[in-house]
Amino acid sequence: MKMRETFFRIAGILSAGFLLVILASAGAKREAMYNAADIIIEIENAYEIFFVNEKDVMELILAGSGDTVLKPFDNGMRLNDIEKQIEDHDFVAQAEVFRDLNGHLVVKARQNKPVARLIGPLGENAYVDEEGQILPVSSKYTARVPVVTGDYVSRITQMENIMEDERSQALFQLIEYLASHPFWSIQIATIDMDRKGYLNLYSQVGDQRLEFGSATEMEKKFKKLEIFFKQIMPTKGWNTYSRVNVAYKDQIICE
Smallest Cα–Cα separation from 111: which of 86, 94, 127? Predict the structure, then answer.
């Protein structure tokens, strides 16, 4: 009787061990391979920016892994390697890759958000994003943001980040100011910056050159420009003045 109980106990242990081996093998196989249909891609700001779509992200994920199957755990590849692979794209600011409870591979990506476009005198063309990074232009999408022109743009386009020197930092502060004020983000179309950092602004409506001077005391200068746009222009006419200077303290010079 005792031998029979021992036999069944040993048989049970062996069966359980065999079952665990099968389950582990199945789990390893599941972890080692994902079909494209098992991959869920979410682009955080896809409805406001269109530099990157789901197809682009899928191509980044499958790069070097075949057309339809990803093997993230083959050859030592890990989820953070996939994240880095996606973040290497010029227009992806951040990526997160993880497995959900159903075993799907979930990929969340956030695009860089441009706040200005740089167009230099020698044909240089780039974007500045909200972190100050200098990004290339895209053949897929053109962002509706203020355009920055002028001689100093040639220098900025050689940088990785616009915060690398004092003058370009001041320009970025102006760009941020425009982006944070709905009225000015609509009104100002172009910012021109010369070699000395002197700024001229050009509006969407009218042909006036708005001489802003350096990017200092911005609140006061925009208060004066607001007087011009909301009080002077409606009474004098949109094209009465070709030059408006707010660079000097307590003055609005119109010509």
Answer: 94
